[in-house]
């Protein structure tokens, strides 16, 4: 006690405190240690630091611990009943707006690749696996897709390629000058191009030896685009060997009303695509015309004139022309409009009459038809009495198109439909010999080419299937085929 008081007095008077001697100090410390025990057993106390040097994390932790203790104390305290609201609030309670329930949308599965979408490899797949002959097929969508791609590629190649079909036609009494005479038959181009500027078609034709090209209708088609047909004519080595007729899908052949009163008669009434082809060197066959083959004569005629009596037809159109001439002189506008067409038809009748008189028994007659004539029509052309009537002689051969080989063909079966209501079943599942190739009706042979494109009367068949575009090449000969010789010998 005396020592502590002495220290206090020294602190007040700033008097240095003398240090105790070593012996006395050790005794005092030793005594205090004995009173309180060993210092190692005393737990160290942490001093709470409030200065800025305390880490922020420790301060936040302490604050959180304080909030937790306060919340526990609040929970432990008895809860007070909520005070009653004011009378005004009770009279007009606030109604909380109704919240619309959120409809949980079903998550769509996102397919990472076309393979995963089409593989049908599990219960969650877009396409389910199917069972065939007891086997589970998981990849059938891919198989179907591959089959469609192969079919589409095959169709494109099928419609772009050209096949050349050779056919020998035996003509009894064929002159020696026409032995081996070769005719190319084309049909139903319908404005289609085979290569740039018809390069593929022209390259194929220029590699074939031929004497004439017969185009039997629908070379332009409903589109009215004559450029592909004109490109074909311009690209030939000799356009003068082309003879063509109008088809059922081609524009015209006559325009509505005349173009004027000046120019050649055909220029006043014929469609532009016909005039353009004629200007490029081709021949439009709307009346009989002859081709000189050395010292022999080959006649070409439109099939529409086979059963026209020459004299009566000429007289009919002559009378009609005279009446309209009188009408024009009288100022009748209707006769003024129709006179060019009537005059042109009278000209065709005159050519029919002249051809009928000029034909001889040794001449060869080939008739061009777009739609294959019926058997009744052909039989009628064969039964005319040449002694009392003036008809063209029955043709040795009729060439036609229009059917396009049925457009779609079933492998091993052939065409299942052709647009011809005169056939049995309206053209469904026709006899294949009536669809394409060479056939015989009475004493007349008829050849039908498959053509180059599709038929305008079957829009539900927009492309050819298992039916390549065809270039037909007919070779005339007087030699009987082997099957006919075997029949004669038997």
Task: Give the topology.
Elements: H1 2-12, H2 22-36, H3 56-76, H4 87-91, H5 114-118, E1 130-132, E2 135-137, H6 140-160, E3 163-170, E4 182-186, H7 199-206, E5 212-215, H8 227-234, E6 242-244, H9 265-269, H10 272-279, E7 283-284, E8 289-293, E9 296-302, H11 310-329, H12 333-358, E10 364-368, H13 375-382, E11 397-400, E12 409-410, E13 414-415, E14 437-441, E15 444-448, E16 470-477, H14 482-489
Parallel strand pairs: 3-16, 4-5, 5-6, 6-7, 9-10, 10-11, 11-15
Antiparallel strand pairs: 1-2, 4-16, 8-9, 12-13, 14-15
Helix pairs in contact: 11-12
Architecture (CATH level 2) name of the largest domain = 4-Layer Sandwich
Strands side by side in the biggest sheet:
3-16-4-5-6-7
Distance between the termini: 165 Å
What oligomeric arrangement do these chains adopt? single chain
Number of structurally distinct domains: 2
How would you describe this protein?
The protein is built from 14 helices and 16 strands. Helices cover 34% and strands 14% of the residues. The chain is elongated. A 6-stranded mixed sheet has the order 3-16-4-5-6-7, covered by helices on one side. The chain has a 6-stranded mixed sheet with strand order 8-9-10-11-15-14. By secondary structure, it is α/β, with parallel strands linked by helices. The model is unreliable at 22-36 (pLDDT under 50). The longest helix has 26 residues, at 333-358. The chain has 2 domains: 114-148, no CATH class; 165-489, Purple Acid Phosphatase, chain A, domain 2 (4-Layer Sandwich). α11 (310-329) runs antiparallel to α12. β1 and β2 (135-137) form a beta hairpin. The protein has helices at residues 2-12, 22-36, 56-76, 87-91, 114-118, 140-160, 199-206, 227-234, 265-269, 272-279, 310-329, 333-358, 375-382, 482-489, and strands at 130-132, 135-137, 163-170, 182-186, 212-215, 242-244, 283-284, 289-293, 296-302, 364-368, 397-400, 409-410, 414-415, 437-441, 444-448, 470-477.
């Amino acid at each position: 006690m005396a020592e502590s008081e002495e220290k206090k007095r020294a602190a007040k008077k700033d008097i240095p405190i003398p240090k105790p001697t070593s012996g006395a100090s050790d005794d005092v410390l030793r005594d205090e240690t004995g009173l309180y025990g060993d210092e190692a057993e005393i737990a160290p106390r942490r001093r709470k630091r409030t200065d800025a040097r305390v880490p922020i994390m420790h301060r936040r932790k302490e604050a959180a611990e304080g909030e937790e203790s306060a919340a526990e104390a609040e929970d432990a305290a008895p809860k007070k009943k909520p005070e009653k609201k004011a009378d005004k609030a009770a009279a007009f309670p606030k109604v909380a707006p109704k919240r619309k329930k959120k409809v949980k949308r079903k998550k769509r599965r996102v397919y990472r690749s076309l393979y995963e979408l089409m593989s049908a490899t599990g219960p969650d797949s877009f396409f389910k696996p199917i069972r065939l002959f007891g086997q589970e097929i998981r990849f059938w969508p891919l198989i179907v897709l591959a089959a469609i791609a192969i079919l589409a590629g095959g169709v494109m190649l099928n419609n772009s390629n050209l096949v050349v079909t050779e056919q020998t036609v035996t003509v009894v009494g064929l002159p020696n000058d026409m032995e081996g005479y070769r005719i190319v038959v084309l049909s139903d181009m319908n404005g289609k191009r085979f290569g740039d500027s018809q390069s593929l078609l022209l390259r194929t034709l220029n590699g074939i030896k031929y004497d004439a090209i017969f185009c039997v209708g629908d070379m332009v088609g409903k589109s009215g685009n004559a450029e592909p047909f004109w490109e074909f004519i311009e690209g030939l080595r000799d356009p003068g060997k082309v003879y063509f007729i109008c088809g059922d899908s081609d524009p015209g052949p006559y325009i509505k009303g005349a173009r004027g009163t000046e120019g050649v008669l055909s220029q006043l009434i014929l469609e532009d695509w016909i005039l353009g082809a004629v200007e490029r060197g081709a021949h439009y066959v709307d009346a009989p015309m002859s081709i000189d083959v050395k010292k022999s004569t080959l006649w070409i005629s439109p099939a529409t004139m086979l059963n026209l009596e020459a004299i009566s037809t000429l007289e009919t159109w002559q009378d009609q022309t005279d009446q309209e001439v009188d009408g024009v002189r009288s100022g009748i506008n209707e006769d003024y409009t129709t006179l060019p067409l009537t005059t042109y038809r009278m000209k065709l009748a005159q050519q029919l009459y002249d051809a009928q008189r000029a034909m001889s028994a040794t001449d060869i007659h080939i008739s061009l038809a777009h739609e294959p004539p019926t058997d009744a029509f052909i039989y009628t052309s064969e039964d005319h009495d040449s002694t009392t009537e003036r008809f063209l002689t029955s043709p040795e051969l009729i060439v036609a198109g229009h059917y396009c080989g049925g457009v779609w063909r079933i492998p091993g079966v052939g065409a299942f439909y052709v647009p011809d209501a005169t056939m049995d079943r309206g053209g469904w599942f026709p006899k294949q010999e009536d669809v394409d190739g060479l056939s015989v009706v009475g004493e007349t042979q008829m050849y039908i080419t498959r053509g180059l494109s599709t038929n305008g009367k079957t829009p539900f068949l927009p492309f050819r299937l298992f039916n390549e575009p065809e270039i037909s090449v007919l070779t005339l000969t007087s030699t009987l085929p082997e099957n006919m010789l075997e029949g004669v010998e038997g």
